[in-house]
Write a structure and sequence with these properties.
Oligomer: heterodimer
Helix content of chain A: 55-70%
Radius of gyration of chain B: 30 Å
CATH superfamily of the largest domain in chain A: Cytochrome Bc1 Complex, Chain C
Strand content of chain A: under 5%
CATH class of the largest domain in chain A: Mainly Alpha
Number of domains of chain B: 2
Low-confidence stretches of chain A: none
Number of strands of chain B: 10
Strand order of the largest sheet of chain B: 1-10-9-4-3-2
Number of helices of chain A: 15
Largest sheet of chain A: 2 strands, antiparallel
Order of helices and strands of chain A: HHEHHHHHHHHEHHHHH
Distance between the termini of chain A: 75 Å
Helix content of chain B: 25-40%
CATH topology of the largest domain in chain B: Rieske Iron-sulfur Protein
Number of domains of chain A: 2
Structural class of chain A: mainly alpha
Largest interface: A-B, 11 and 10 residues
Distance between the termini of chain B: 65 Å
Order of helices and strands of chain B: HHEEEEEEEEEE
Mean pLDDT of chain A: 91
Number of helices of chain B: 2
CATH class of the largest domain in chain B: Mainly Beta
Strand order of the largest sheet of chain A: 1-2
CATH architecture of the largest domain in chain B: 3-layer Sandwich
CATH topology of the largest domain in chain A: Cytochrome Bc1 Complex, Chain C
Chain lengths: 366, 159
């Protein structure tokens, strides 16, 4: 079919012989995506991926002017106020980080309630949880880098949490901080974590996650599974689903651009270890649940007991969440499927309540 | 194009103009996005260049304590962003020239033994009084500045 006399088809033929392009194109042509009333949730993994790509792009741009160590605050001040559009690049990076974690949460809960973690997709669930954990570590390490007042105290509080682990806790905290106090060493450590170690872990895990999606295809909810195969609808991945995906990316880009430009990320005064913490000190919203659970248990059971119970109940929730593919493995066992759904609702409610609660009591905390 | 669509009963001819319109509209929208992202990124990347340009756009530099330079010696200083040298000759005259070798941009220096300007990268030699290229690879003389000694300071300006 291809006109072999023309240069483009000659180039294509040359590449095809060596790379097997036709096979890839044929594979993409055969791939189909199920379509049903819950299809909307299929886009959230892609949206999360889009924000991750934006993070990489803006992150590299920030890397051009950011200087870790003693000059960290000054370099971020320069990026924000002196470099053309530096405020916009930084604001986009910060907003994309928040939107990425938010869309990852939407993706996680939608796959949970669609029971996409069931056989044979257990490793999609676990690699997804791994990616979310790494994303939160990205957020925690990135938050310190500007070294303004809020960054300093949020990190101080954040690093005090592993410090409450019996026996090894203080040792871990000191090692992560590079000393008993947050200093230039801490910034350098967090910087290495943020731009080298975490990407080196995140990108291969992301590839694994995406490869598994290719292998198993999209999971379908129980309501669809109940239908005979002939009644299930699907659309071609290319171009139909890809175009819809692209449209979602465009919406995500517009929302991101609007937020970044209209609500630019602020830079507080430089961190001063001798100044009392600002009254509204709080972690990023995605750490609010763990922060608030520790606070609640601390208020109910003063001292080490409260700390232990807070950490224990939080970790119990996380572990149960992670092993859900084991106690709800197939669609046939109805009892455990219902229990898993209730557990999901409880977790969603717990996250929402503790987060809102955490923000509601903020001004009262000195 | 129109021949093909006429042959195909599923594609009436009016579809052609609609498709063209959609293609142009999508292209224009794409160009808007590319510009909207590209412009801030370009300005962001170009910031240090613009800053350096404003620093480089000087016409006069004052070198303090010029008279403390001994005879047959030179002081390196920055004229804008680029290195330059102020030479105090044996006969108490002054020369200010750019220190950027005209060959490949190395920084040249004053050689008090031979009383010449020497660039060690490729053995370029310039005349210490005029900055003229004497031997070696340099293709043209060093940029020369005017020097005026005022109250112990040297006021160096573009010639």
């Amino acid at each position: 079919m291809p006109d072999t006399d023309k240069l483009p088809s000659k180039v294509y033929g040359w590449l095809d012989e060596r790379l097997g392009l036709t096979e890839i194109v044929a594979l993409a042509g055969h791939k189909r995506v199920p379509e049903h009333k819950h299809s909307f949730w299929y886009y959230w993994g892609g949206i999360t991926l889009f924000f991750f790509i934006v993070m990489c792009f803006t992150g590299v741009l920030l890397l051009l002017y950011y200087r870790p160590g003693e000059e960290a605050y000054e370099s971020v001040r320069m990026i924000t106020y002196e470099i053309h559009f530096g405020w916009l690049i930084r604001s986009t990076h910060s907003w994309a980080a928040n939107l990425m974690v938010a869309s990852a949460f939407v993706h996680m809960f939608s796959t949970y309630f669609m029971k996409a973690y069931r056989k044979p997709r257990e490793f999609l669930w676990w690699s997804g949880l791994g990616l979310l954990s790494l994303a939160m570590l990205f957020g925690f390490s990135g938050y310190l880098l500007p070294m303004d007042e809020l960054a300093f105290f949020a990190t101080k509080v954040g690093l005090a949490i592993p410090g409450t682990i019996p026996v090894v806790g203080p040792w871990i905290s000191d090692l992560v901080r590079g000393g008993p106090e947050i200093s230039a060493y801490t910034i350098s450590r967090f910087f290495a974590l943020h731009v080298v170690i975490l990407p080196a872990l995140f990108i291969p895990l992301l590839m694994f996650h995406l490869a598994l999606v290719q292998k198993h295809g999209m999971s379908i909810p129980e309501s669809e599974e109940a239908k005979p195969e002939s009644e299930r609808k699907s659309i071609p991945f290319f171009p139909n689903f890809a175009m819809k995906d692209l449209a979602m990316w465009l919406i995500a880009l517009n929302v991101l651009a609007l937020l970044a430009a209209v609500f630019p990320w602020s830079l507080g005064p430089a961190a001063d270890p001798l100044k009392p913490a600002p009254a509204d000190i709080h972690p990023e919203w995605y750490f609010m649940t763990s922060f608030q659970i520790l606070k609640i248990f601390g208020a109910w059971f003063p001292g080490a007991v409260g700390e232990f119970l807070g950490l224990a109940s939080f970790n119990l929730g996380v572990v149960l969440w992670a092993i859900v593919p084991l106690f709800d493995p197939t669609s046939k066992s109805g009892k455990w499927g219902v229990r898993a759904t209730y557990f999901g609702m409880f977790m969603l409610a717990a996250i929402l309540v503790t987060t809102i609660w955490g923000y509601a009591v903020l001004p009262a905390t000195p | 194009m129109s021949d093909e669509s006429r042959q195909n009963p599923e594609q009436p001819e009016s579809d052609d103009s609609r498709r063209t319109f959609l293609k142009v509209a999508a292209g224009a929208l794409g160009a808007c996005y590319a510009g909207g992202i590209g412009y801030p990124v370009y300005r962001y990347l170009a910031s240090p260049v613009e800053k350096a340009e404003s620093v480089a756009a000087v016409n006069e530099v004052t070198v303090p304590d010029a008279t403390s330079i001994p005879r047959n010696a030179a002081l390196m200083f920055k004229f804008g962003t680029k290195p330059a040298m102020l030479i105090h000759h044996e006969d108490d005259t002054w020369t200010a020239v750019s220190a950027v070798c005209t060959h490949l941009g190395c920084t040249a220096g004053y050689d008090p033994q031979e009383k010449r300007i020497f660039c060690p990268c490729h053995n370029g030699v310039y005349d210490a009084k005029t900055g003229a290229n004497v031997s070696g690879p340099p293709p043209k003389p060093l940029d020369r500045f005017n020097v005026e000694i005022v109250e112990g300071k040297a006021v160096v300006s573009r010639a």
